[in-house]
Amino acid sequence: MHFLVLSVICSVLVSVLLKLAPRQGIDIPQAVTWNYLAATVLSLLLLKPSLQSLQSAHTPWLALLGLAVALPGIFLVLAGAVREAGIVRSDVAQRLSLLLSLAAAFLLFGEQANGWKLAGLGLGLLAIVGVSARSGDGKAAATQGWRWLLGVWAGFALIDILLKQVAAAGTPSTAALLVSFGIAFVLMLGWQLQRHLSGRSQLTPANLVYGLLLGLLNFGNILFYVRAHQALPDSPATIFASMNIGVVCLGALVGVLVFGEKTSMWNRVGLALAVLAIALIARGTL
């Protein structure tokens, strides 16, 4: 169970780093770039994926390329959501992306619906409304935050759908992650060099160090989640629910107690509904 706790902590600390980045003068696109350098190297060293499967004619290169674009893209969107809407609401929106993933599983991948999953889906949609509601900030800021939250919700769901496509093609997840991380780093590095040469943003050691730390935590979240499933192979639903509920609850505590984020009554109702929705969906997978 300690792997699960470590995964939850790493996930929330990623949001904390994104929250602190503007205060430290960190350029988010640069940090995200170096994050994928760290993730690529750590994947190669610790996951040790076999790349033979990528030589198959059935390798879903289009989905892998989509992941390489979507992964850094959602990182930038998540940074905007944390900045505009706060850690509490951003982490809830991130975890509720499973609603769109679940709907896609029903429509595209032939997964069977049941009462538990449908109930969780319905409560989750209500939770999105509650979490996205204004929390006492100005109207313009609230509108901007709402847009970022929807971006997080849709973006993480897109990544999950792409991962399902890769899995359906028979490509091992570790190999898919390594290739996606590597391509994402190359694409992002090209963008940063263009920004540097045009004078829009200078490459600095501070951004490099911050990005490597971000990558360490981002990869730690993935690694410990995988280890948790390996340690408890007969309890996938328990791990799924514990991970998502843990991130929602710890993110809420950190956002409110550490950063003093304000939440409205509707936000708190949405948070409670999110926890219940995740639990119902996990129950439906048993």
From TrEMBL:
Compartments, record wording: Membrane
Entry GO terms, CC: membrane
Record field: transmembrane: 28-47, 59-80, 92-109, 116-133, 145-163, 175-193, 208-226, 238-259, 265-282
Top-level lineage group: Bacteria
InterPro entries to which the protein is assigned, alphabetical: AA-Vitamin_Transporters (IPR050638), EamA_dom (IPR000620), EmrE-like (IPR037185)
Family: Belongs to the EamA transporter family.
Protein name per Swiss-Prot or TrEMBL: Membrane protein
Species annotation: Stenotrophomonas terrae
